[in-house]
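All the exercises in this workshop are built on plain-text protein records. An example says more than a description, so a record of this kind follows:
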Amino acid sequence: MKRSLWIGLMDILVIFFIAALVTAMILLPFIFNKYTGFAGSQTFNSLWIKVFLYFTAAPFMALLIMTKKIINNIKRKDPFCHSSITALNIISICAFTDFVLYAIGTAIIFKNLLSLTLAIAAFMVGLTSLVLSQLVKEAMKIKQENDLTI
């Protein structure tokens, strides 16, 4: 019971974040203009910041969709499959893409500690998902060996 509750909660959270990201991307120009009006810092590179935010949202959306795919595999009681390995590899690629984008954005556009922190966090997500994909690959091999011996 507890396991299915946690899986259901994770599923709802991923769906919520996908919907929130889509909504934020649709409303990005309005949100950005309100923020710059509130913060009082109308910058000359606001177009570049908006473009940057759209570029970084695309890998994050793919990351969320792959997370949903892994949750569906867990719901089907088949977490150690090729689909999970592929999803984890795609998550690592997306996270490393966001790392590179935020590293470039830190150097060129933002020049602040927050974007550098986001870059490091994206790197850690990419590294963790890459390690997990190898772990799932090994678990899948062990599962196949066990299935053959029984």
Summary: Residues 29 and 35 are 10 Å apart (CA to CA).
